[in-house]
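Journal club prep — side note

Before the paper discussion, L.F. wants everyone to see what a predicted structure for a comparable chain looks like in token form. Sequence:
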Amino acid sequence: RERLSMNAKQWYQRRVHGDQEIVALVGGGHAIGRCHVERSGFDGPWTFSPTTFSNEYFRVLLEDTWTQRPWRGNKQFQDSTKTLMMLPTDMAMRDDPEFRKWSEIYMKDGERLSRDFAVAFKKLVESGFNDKRSCPV
């Protein structure tokens, strides 16, 4: 798990993101949608409301019990209802002490998650783009 959290940190830090922004991006991104086995090798939603942006991802991540899913697909975890899934990198949001600090903050404060996600996402999509003059407004 330590290696997974380091991989996530290294990928995002190359894009000038710190731990807070990493947690906001992962949790905000995984608040919406699901994995499709034919596209990613993983299967299932992260939350019970995969079409709504909220902090539910952090609530289920931190409050539920997660076990490795016994199946022939990629390594993933399932909740106690066997309905939701988490990736190994999601578990790093719970297990890495710095990531967990922010996960707990976002679990308690959905408005802060929304604000921080917006700032971090803008930074992510604009990273590496320096010539704003070449892009018409």
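L.F.'s comment for the group: The chain is about 55% helix and 5% strand. Keep this in mind when we get to the figures.
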